[in-house]
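HUMAN: Would you supply a protein with fold tokens?

ASSISTANT:
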Amino acid sequence: MHSVTAPIWVCGWFYGYRMMQDLMGGGYLTGDAIWWDLYIPGLFYCLQFAVFHVYAFDQETILQKQREQQLVQAAYNSEINALKAQIRPHFLFNTLNSVSASVPVEMEPTRELIAILADNLRHSLKASENESMTFHDELQFTQNTLDLEKERWKERLQLLYKIDETLLQNKVPPMLLQPLTENAIKHGIAKMVDGGTIHISTRKSVKKIRIGASDTGAGIDETFKIDMFKKGIGLKNTHTRLMKLFNEPIQYRQQLGVGIEFYFYKPINTIK
């Protein structure tokens, strides 16, 4: 940009100064001294934009330090929460196993639901101990959660998956996708008499992974659009985590007719 604007600035200064001097009857440098009338505006241009760039760099440094402090605090809180979660995890799993063993054989679907719930609890504990996991594990957790929800909503909830299998081993922060599906059920499917469909999709976009969850539910009203990332827990926390980790927000778009899609981009290879 400066390679274009600097010559324009210097030429504008040079010819503008001479025009003004001609109108006022004044003089200006000629011969070899003419270079001073080029050097001075060029120097002034460099100095003023040096100040601008230093200020911009200083502001970016301050923001970066703030983000680092917030991440450190978030990591500390995550560690504390993990320690709390580990107090008696075996007691909880043993209790679920006992409940599952007491279920009659003819109620096998109930036993399967208890097993899925136990797997989800193990995943939640694992998520609190690790900063990242494969997208395969994250997707499996989300599928288990939706299977539990489907048992509740029955035929009112249909599930579709369009997953790029080449992305399954990519590392992602845990518990990012589930809040999107939870929001789709609560604000979309639950409001429809006939229910609807949740569609989970992933695809590679340039050097990013696009992960989204859409529904064919009631859509969202203008009031919810204003406060969707300010109130509640799921969307707000997920949006905040994405911004701090990748400077990528949750995005959304209204589907044709009814329904909405929430999606986010995760840069490839930013988490080991």
Observations:
- Residues 2-80 form one domain.
- The mean pLDDT is 83.
- DSSP finds eight helices and seven strands in the chain.
- The CA atoms of residues 20 and 26 lie 8 Å apart.
